[in-house]
Amino acid sequence: MEKNIYLVGSGLTPFGEWWGESLRDLMEEAIAAALKSSHLNATEIDMVIVANMLAEVTNNQSGLGALASSLLPHHPPALRVESACGSGALALHTACAFLESKRAKTVLVLGVEKMTDASVDAVSQALMGAADSELDAPSGLTFPGIFGLITRRYMHEFGLTREQLSVVSAVHHRNAHENPFAQFRQKLTPEDVTASPLVSDPLRLFDCSPISDGAAACILSTIHKSPLRIAASQMTSDTLSITERPTIVSFKATREAMSRALKESDIDRSDIKVVETHDCFSIASVINMEDLGFAKQGEGIRIYEDIYAGRTPLFLNNSGGLKACGHPVAATGIKQLIEVGKYLKDTSTQWGLAHNFGGAAASCGIHIMENTNA
Amino acid sequence: MNNGAPIIHRSLKRERDRFLPGTVVSFTTLTHPPVRFGHRPRTIGLIELNNGQRVLAPILSENKPFIGQQVRPRMRLSHATADGLRVYEVAYEALAGKAVQLQKFPGYILALTGPSGVGKSTISRTLARVFSEYAENVPILTTRDPKKSDDGEYVYTTPKEFELLRRAGVIVSSTNIPSSTEKRQYGYRSTDIEAIWNKGKLPIVVTEIRLLKGLAHHYGRQSILSFGLLPPGKSKRAKLSALLHRLRTRGRETEAHIRDRMKNAEHDLAFFLERKDLFDHMVVNEDLSSVIASVKEKVPKFSGI
């Protein structure tokens, strides 16, 4: 990083189905919580970056930058960014760029999605915007379908079994049990996951992250300090369509972002002890463990098996991940960074990582955070 | 939100350019596909085509497909949009569990398909006469009673015997042509087709929808030199009226039979569009000599004679 960027405040709405809350209500709640935790005055924010994917479809709302800005008394300049489910990481990355270039000194980064206003079919179709509308969507494929294809191929190549895969969601639900902001806090056994209804064979209902409402906000600053420093911010891209990739069981965008982020933060992978990874579907988590370099290819599931058996020191998806904490699309990447910061502080750990991707990892954002007090 | 029609159109155009057989890389079955595709589960495959490109498309298979399975494309009606636009798509048909590419190529069969009255029998008889050294008609096994107008193209049998032969696998393709006036079964015996091959000749078969599908399934699509015969006329109505005229002038059938045949003919014409993949050439039967010339030009065994 060109400059030291600190996470000086953060706030979340609980993730869930909030029928009574509007897009604006969710934004307002997260911003208020972030300002409160930062002890800053709202007028000290000199830029707002809003991440959102679907407001035009689910809420008939564009102009999200101005909408967010209007929630602050001095209406600072605002920018909306979109990179599907990776929008949150993109907003953080954009904020870092403004801070490094000195165009801004204190930036409010906000991710928001209000998905339950629209029908499931409409949301499902809109989410397919994160795949190629002419190469992928006309076949009738949905995102669970894309990851169903990926799961079947992965099982074929590496012999992963249905029972093994079920451990992933069991771990996430167990973690969410302790998280007051999580959408699903009940525990699940692997057997519950295996017995849940089929969605896109071999993926089942409890392999899939839900449709959620929620917002997450954080304040990044170069002039106000905190123990939490952003040590790396990297974004990468891959082809939008899975038909244009040589393999679907590993994501190039994640591998590249990870290698660049480690270089930027100048640390070793083994230094990282806290990870929030993008588990939109349970298979994604397994692949992510391999692409992030925590497991060899074909062995990503072992990390989850170890965590479930209490055998590993890695703090993985403590929030409950996208599966159990909920996945209000563009809020997820920012929530991940907030969660990593929280666990670094709570456990006095030095290094943590947030890994967020869009589509089938067509874009990927990785942020590495350092707890300078650890 | 746009209704997706231009997107679907462009997508389909691209798909048509990739109308090739391929191999299943992966597949999934959506329990609840998007509403526009109806409420039945939909199996979608990631398919690597024989030119190396990959596509996503529905897989049509009675059994669960498998990774590495060979598939071949076919056009089919997908759904209708809210505006009434009928959307067609390329779907991939899973070939039988056994590896079809390893099937021995048995030889060619010349198949003539078309609605009743289009002139299939006349053309096949003429071809067999003109190219008698090179081709021979395959007799049609039927359970119906002989008619005066039959001209040696049928071999007659009882329904019981027909069923026995079908079960024994001697009849490689059969059909039960729906009719309100009689129960009629037709089929081809492998022994007849193979005997013609053994003479070094090209078997000529007169088929309809199910017979053609059955032959393609048994011997492999690549073994069928498939000609679709169309009656003259620009519109469907003109084509049907040309057929009606021919059926009436040949004077073989009663009016009840003709009504039956016209109903089937309409279905047959639609089949040409639905299953373009089953036809190598479409020929309009304006007059016999031009059809014979056209077939001659397109059949390697005949050209140069």
From TrEMBL, chain A:
One of its GO terms (molecular function) is acyltransferase activity, transferring groups other than amino-acyl groups. Gene3D superfamilies: 3.40.47.10. Residues 237-370 form the Thiolase C-terminal domain. Pfam families: Thiolase_C_1 (PF22691), Thiolase_N (PF00108). InterPro entries: Thiolase, Thiolase-like, Thiolase_C_2, Thiolase_N. Residues 6-221 form the Thiolase N-terminal domain. It comes from the Bacteria. This is Acetyl-CoA acetyltransferase.
UniProtKB/TrEMBL annotation, chain B:
Keywords: Kinase, Transferase. Residues 107-300 form the Guanylate kinase-like domain. InterPro entries: ChsH2_C, GK/Ca_channel_bsu, Guanylate_kin-like_dom, NA-bd_OB-fold, P-loop_NTPase. GO terms for molecular function: GMP kinase activity. GO terms for cellular component: cytosol. Gene3D superfamilies: Guanylate Kinase phosphate binding domain (3.30.63.10), P-loop containing nucleotide triphosphate hydrolases (3.40.50.300). It comes from the Bacteria. The keyword Coiled coil does not apply. PROSITE patterns: GUANYLATE_KINASE_2 (PS50052). SMART domains: GuKc. PANTHER family: GUANYLATE KINASE, GUANYLATE KINASE-RELATED. Belongs to the guanylate kinase family. This is Guanylate kinase-like domain-containing protein. It comes from Candidatus Kaiserbacteria bacterium RIFCSPHIGHO2_02_FULL_49_16. The lineage of its organism: Bacteria, Candidatus Kaiseribacteriota.
